[in-house]
Amino acid sequence: MSTLPPVNLSVIRIFSRFNNDDLTAISAIGEIIEVKPHAHVIIEGEPTRGLYVIISGRVSVYRNEPGSTTMSRLAMLEEGANFGELSLIDNAPRSATVIAETACDLFALDAARFHGWLENSQADVSVRFYRACAEELAVRMRRVNQDYITAQQQLWRHALRRVEAKAP
Prior knowledge:
This protein is α+β, with helices and mostly antiparallel strands. The chain has 4 helices and 8 strands, in the order ααββββββββαα.
């Protein structure tokens, strides 16, 4: 297993506040793993913790539908995207299943190793990391809010068309 050059990590939003020395150190504590097509990288509900960055390939993110054995695709992620970052913040079980669509090379960063590095770094490193995480989560929350509003508008339009179609 090899390390990822720091320049690649600098484009990941949650690492954007780290300097080159920090990124080199993070690269050294992570590892590059190869994943075969259709392999599960993360399974919803499992207690594993760690972040993945897609170096090459494509993965899909799924959620289990409550009361069903069906999964719904939430997203397809490609080179440069990351997933699993929430597990660097909390101890909750995985919130989604991630399956490789193609052969993938992933940079895997174990949460325990990362937190050990953070604890041994200067205090401002942790502050910069958690601020970048908060900014990333804010972006995602705004996107979810907008998607919710759009979905509600579409549902109301559809409902009104049905009512209008039934009216004499």
